[in-house]
Amino acid sequence: MNFRKTNNQQMRSGKVVVRSMLSTQVACLLNCLAPQLAVMLNNMMVSQFLGVDCFKASSVFSPVTGMILILINLCNLGPSLQAGTAYGKLDFKSANRLLTFSVVSSAVVSVIPAISILVFRHRIAEIMTSDTAISGYLVSYLAPIVVYLLLNAIASVLNAYVTSAGHAKKVSRAIFVSVFANVLSIFLLIKVAHLGIESVGIAMCISSATNILLLLPIFLNGQFPFHLDTKAIGHFTDFRKDFVLWVSVISGSISNALFQFFVNITILCYLPSNGLFVWGICLIAISIPYCFTAGFVDAYMYVDAFLLGEDDSAGRLKIAKVFLFEGMSVLLLLGFVFIGFSDSIAMLFGAETIEMARSVRIPIVCAIVFLVSRDWGIFYSVFSIQRKPFVKICFDTLSCLCPILLVNLAAIFLGGDNLWYGFAASSIFFLAYTIAVNVYLCHKDRNLIPIFLLDRYKETINLDLSVKYSLDSLEENMDRVRLFLNVCEINEELSKRIEICCEELMNNMILTKAKSDTFDLRLSEAGDMMCLFVKNLGNPASPNIPTNIVEEFVNNGKIPDIRDLSLFYIKNYSDKEVYHYVYGMNILYLQFNKTNHQISQDH
């Protein structure tokens, strides 16, 4: 075991997996920010072109639409993370079953509300608003929303599973184009086609349809790893044990929505209209960093799920450290910006006097303290999501109820004007919960990442190398491979085969051009298998291992290329080889069956 620990700590730089996660984060951040931008532009155009009543009609139904979309995401985000883990394990059967479950459950969750809205839209409009004019606009708005819910369910499945297959940038591109189509459609439908509020719903349908059209060819591609499995329909009850994990993935979104709703009510109870203005500024200071947090979390969860499937504990720890550092750095940076420019921000959003602008200072400080402590807790809760999802659900529940309770207590005992101190006080509970729960769990489960990010790995023998793209480093790294193979419980023949494959792979990789200065090579022993993993950053470059190289030489005298000859040796010396291009990484898996080689030696 000492050999394993020493090599993990000193030889694996983690540059490949870290840069892969950072690249994925850019795409996930854009995915979070793009819809927010679309909503803002849509609201501006509806208000300017169609009037305030139309804006009110579209806004009044937004919470209902939002809740339906959350339920649709529940059917996709959690299962797609598990599908990513299955993908890393090369367990395509489980991944296909998860995809089938997502498709069927998303259809049910979207179809039932859509039919209900279509049939009862007049009654819904009467219940949700007493104003006859707004009620009429709402009826017109709800008709295309029915189609939008159905299209969004399809788009949600595609976005989740194309991302889990490692193509986050393609999803980001599709979402951005669909957002542009949304904004452009509203403008054209209102100004050119002279439609009313129904143009908003139609534009949303066009946006989702655009998203689907851009991603559907990828999904239908024969090389896409996930496929529908009709046999899985009879096994849907098997997914009940995974429901807690799926809820934990979206519990933060549910908690955040409920938090904003209840805080609005609380402020209306204790403060006049100026209180809503101050809360609006604080909400901006909380919401914008939260978009960054959501993007970081999404990218981390997807890449971490894949590495979990690969059993790459060292890689998981590397990306966890970077994830925590960059997440907290961005939060603190944005926090200082909002605190330092609070007066200017208040004036920008309509503060009528200097005194009104200055009244925002203390509330923003309290909001930033709340934000940093809450999101710090979110980061650590995400670390345990795969093994202890209930930890994140509990934290998200706490982050909703605790500040609301403390804000009310602050308003009662300190006065309505000082209710903001309740936000700052809630940070004590967040920090205490995060430290206590994580320390306790990490003492019980050695596979969880602890709060102090100490190096701990699964008790498996493995070798992790970060190999430089230089021939000078080849012999040194091969000595480490040989030393590792001597420790493993394998026969000499198999050891020699693996040694040759490692050397040929290193030679092949060194001859390529890459975006990073190193590539990863990992050897692990798991039961009856020896597994060899090679990862590098760059464009897709399938190894295309040749099979007829000997026949070509014998029959036609064709001298093979040195790289083709090298790959031919790898093909013949390994029992199984699989290539993936995932999250910007070229990954080649080679498997060696110890039992087969032992039998051949015995004979």
List descriptors.
603 residues, alpha+beta, five-stranded antiparallel sheet, 5 strands, 7% strand, disordered N terminus
How do the helices and strands line up, and which of them pair or pack?
Elements: H1 2-11, H2 15-50, H3 52-60, H4 62-74, H5 77-88, H6 92-128, H7 132-164, H8 168-191, H9 198-220, H10 243-270, H11 273-310, H12 313-340, H13 342-348, H14 354-358, H15 361-383, H16 389-414, H17 421-444, E1 462-468, H18 474-487, H19 492-510, E2 518-526, E3 529-537, H20 549-556, H21 562-573, E4 576-582, E5 585-593, H22 594-602
Antiparallel strand pairs: 1-2, 2-3, 3-5, 4-5
Write up this protein.
This protein has 603 residues and is an alpha+beta fold. Helices cover 73% and strands 7% of the residues. It is built from 22 helices and 5 strands. The protein has a 5-stranded antiparallel beta sheet. α3 crosses α7 and α7 packs parallel to α9. The chain is globular, with a radius of gyration of 28 Å. The two termini are 32 Å apart.
CA-atom Rg in angstroms: 28 Å
Q: What portion of residues is helical?
A: over 70%
Helix-strand makeup class: alpha+beta
Unreliable runs: 1-10, 452-459, 599-603
Strand order of the largest sheet: 1-2-3-5-4
- Overall outline: globular
Strand content: 5-15%
Q: Write the element-wise H/E pattern from the N-terminal end onward.
A: HHHHHHHHHHHHHHHHHEHHEEHHEEH
Strand segment count: 5
N-to-C span? 32 Å
Mean pLDDT: 81
The largest β sheet comes out as: 5 strands, antiparallel
* Total of helices: 22
